[in-house]
Amino acid sequence: MDASINAISRLLQPRSVAIIGASADPGKTAGRPVAYLQKHGYAGRILPVNPKADRIGELPCYADIASLPETPDVAIVLLGAERAQVAIKELSARGCAAAIVLASGYTETGEDGARRQQQLMEAAGQMRILGPNTIGLVNLTDQIVLSATGALEMDEFPVGAVGVVSQSGGILGSLLSRAAARGIGLSKLISTSNEVDLELADFIDHLADDPATQVIALYIETVRNPAKFRAACLKAARNGKPVVAFKIGRSEAGAQAAVSHTGAMAGADRMYDALFKQVGVIRAQTFNDLLDIPVALGTGRHLRGRRVAVLTSTGGAGTLVSDDLGVAGFETPAPDTATAEALRALQTGSEAVLDRNPIDVTLAGLRPELLRGAIRTLLASPSYDALVIIVGSSSLAMPELMAGAIRDCLPDSDKPVMAYISPHAPEVGALLTRNGVPAFAAAESCTAALSAMFKVGSFVAPVEEVDIWSAVELGELPSGSLDEAQAKHLFARFKVPCAAERIVASPAEAEAAARELGGRVVLKILSSQITHKSDVGGVAVGLTPETVGERLISMASDVHAKAGVRPDRFIVQEMVGGGIELILGMHRDALGTAVLLGMGGVTAELFKDTTMRLLTQDAQELKPLSRADALSMAKDLKTWPLLDGFRGRPKADVDALVDAIVAFSRMAAQLGDRLVEAEINPVFVRAQGEGVSAADGVLVLT
């Protein structure tokens, strides 16, 4: 077994635990770990260390680390930052596998703290560190609580299949207590916090192999190692273990000052969206989703379509659920004839409404035998892929019977079954959840859960393609912002097709170029100082040899008046018509390098119909996108129907577009850190077989 994996296993399942700085007062933070280990049934050896105490309760207390009778698997260090470093060095020298450092005062405090954190890592040597500034971890599967969180004051917790990794200690306690109150069973909870050593990806990788964990929930502040995170999440996906992430920081100013449209549209949060999409991570949009979605995924049920049956005894709540489902793209069709007949056969009387959806069984639906019959009928129906059961106020008198009736039907089908609790009745929701029926207090939670199940069912972990491509010989490249002609020349060297054009400096040269290019042309200023040319009157379309010269003179004056710069060079470019305008760009931040594709032209930032893919890293080199990646990007766009022949219009040359995307990504991969920004806007996609043309370009090099 790999030593690092073995250390994480020992951290989560230690045979012995030393508590460095333990207090005899369970009311103090330093007294909690011993008290909680005993309270929650830890079966291993507990070794408190405190020079001021001989015993803590029934346990002998040791004066220092050197006095310990054995080398502990794990140590919880409750000392301040300065003393913690000394303890870590001593523990490492004794061969301790891992230490949990609760102290604050590290990178979160600035430069001095960052130095202390580096010293802590050096003191650890081969020993693994969780933290610092962590609240610890909780292994509910094996009754091992290595934490000081006050949430452990609760007497017992449901044990289940959801593992949690949080970069916030306080959030770990919040999720632990919230899950317990809702009857949601968890397996392991780990607070990584400052991540001086062990980080988010280490525990995703470990939980992907943990038999007790079927779903992994993440509370993310930042991903420090994108390549490691990607590998761990793909491993989880291939092992059939969905990953759900709540990422804070969505309001950060991602649209920073940039010379390109891409820079304005591809903020940090969009980069996380792209990363999550590529590795199959389900993004929780609200904090509540971070429990709602995993509890639904943890049932292991499969959603194969978007047709949902809503079974209710209260019409208003049923409509609320079906309406929210409809907004999210789910269907709530009426029962087919055979299903409706089977439902009607379950009862006599005319009070029920069984020929439409929501299926309203009124108060008669409170009879357990009728409820069982209706559930079994709907789960067997070919018209539905999932079932949402509305629990109304009238159900509160007999929640155990209702929960039992629903539970009895679960083995009949692997379709998702969930409940919406219409009145405020958290105890009923917890009862249902413990019985294997995820129960939610909001209609939106049902939708979020089903949406996540659909995404998980449709995600296929990518197969790494072997893409053999030769580097382009570039020679000496300029630095800074290139002008449009230079940018397109570089694009063309990577085989991105560009519109035909000529560089001119006078009206006469412009007229000659227009004739050579076949008549109708576009005139643009050529300047590395002005990127958004149309904003300053630097673009004119539909010109002819007879009009281009005069327009060049007036354009020079207009641009000088608006931008304070008098252009002395211009581009005369063939006028590309009849194509679909897209934008193709590149963006880089701490998370990596991404390619962006979207609706292009001057309205690119207005409509923001875009999608992104991050380039992967292999042996320190970026890898370009595959053709499959490029095609999936095109299909992501709302604009895709236009490319695919919307309402009888000719299909666009998607193959040529895919070639251009791949070529552009090869440029981004080869140039690496030298490439600051790159964009083609617009790239015209013509009719099938007619190719694509880059009509404008931005490129900034270091």
From TrEMBL:
Transmembrane segments: none annotated. PROSITE patterns: ATP_GRASP. Pfam families: ATP-grasp_5, CoA_binding_2, Succ_CoA_lig. The keyword S-adenosyl-L-methionine does not apply. SUPFAM superfamilies: Glutathione synthetase ATP-binding domain-like, NAD(P)-binding Rossmann-fold domains, Succinyl-CoA synthetase domains. SMART domains: CoA_binding. Residues 488-701 form the ATP-grasp domain. Keywords: ATP-binding, Nucleotide-binding. This is Acyl-CoA synthetase (NDP forming).
